[in-house]
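Quick one: co-fold with pyridoxal-5'-phosphate.
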Amino acid sequence: MTSIGLNPADDGRAWVEIDMSALRHNVSTIKGRLAPGCEIMAVVKADAYGHGAAEISSQLRQAGVNTFAVATVGEAIQLRESGLDSEILVMGCTSPQDAGLLAEHNLKQVVADGKHAKLLNETGSKLAIHIAIDTGMHRLGIEPDNMAEIEGIFACENLKVEGLATHFAAPDSLDESDIAFTRAQYDKFMDTVNALKGKGYNVGKLHMQSSYAVLNYPDFKCDFIRPGISLYGALHNASTAKNPGLRPVLSLRARVAQVRWIKPGESVSYGRTFSTTRPMKIATVSIGYADGVPRQISGTGAQVLIHSQRALIIGRICMDMLMLDVTHIDHVGPLDIVTLIGRDVADEIRCEEFAMRADTITHDVLCRLGQRLPRIYLP
Ligand SMILES: *Cc1c(COP(=O)(O)O)cnc(C)c1O
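Sure, here it is.
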């Protein structure tokens, strides 16, 4: 097999390659766009979007990132157990039952509203918290003009407010009304911040921007940004993001299991949805929807790379395998490497292209990649 320079998986059936140099490049690119005093809070939830949270966090730590965010207490504890001693903020709603774990592992918690704060406070655990302000996402948070509820949190004796956060609903969109909406969200947030400051509260660190807001609204003033997908270099929609040259970190590869010719008029795979109209050389590849290749891209014209050439996926994608039309590609054989996401010498399939086929976003594709795929880290 010659078309891919690096072949660390020997004869593995399917695997994920993680390019740490691309991750470092993305960190320095994003850092280069930040106002002085603003720092990265790296979002490493969902196993760092399928990249491996322990390895990614450790690499980010070495690249000077000191603050991390996850969705659940369990994710945060796994990071602690991997040896990460940095600040970790749990952004999802943690049950009061788990307050002891937050304290024990020195984790910071986003509180969703006054009720959530009260329940956490009543556990008696001493907790560092950030307050979520809902400026228009309408997911978690307190209405910005509900000062009494916000002030009630500052009054909780066991909770120490260390930050205020909000989240934008459409920061990726360059549509005029979405831009106005995002700017209005920012203004509401800052009004609340200023009102609290005016009353003498120490609001701590401010943060609001996920990746697209970092790229599209560099003028917003904050102490932290919360990038996820941009660190991994997989912006989902080329038309909306001002991509400053981020590099994809992840590649998805698998091996050919079998190659053979089939006759015209034969069907391929479950349900017989695809039939040949000519003699066809097909290759069976050892990767399927249990590995995170969405079954719904079957029959959509989705392509992969093999010997640096494009080949169509034909028939239904199976749980552990899929089939390709490789009639036009010479010398395809067992153990040849197939690239589903990533570069193969002269051509590249970006996660963006893969996600578009599946009618979804890159976040969704990456965090569904199967746990049974080995992750191979390239320095
Ligand atoms: C997931 C998440 C992020 C990161 O979003 P990206 O689009 O991946 O940059 C930031 N903030 C919150 C609250 C999130 O849930």
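If it helps, Residues 43, 45, 91, 167, 210-211, 226-230, 363 surround pyridoxal-5'-phosphate (CB under 6 Å).
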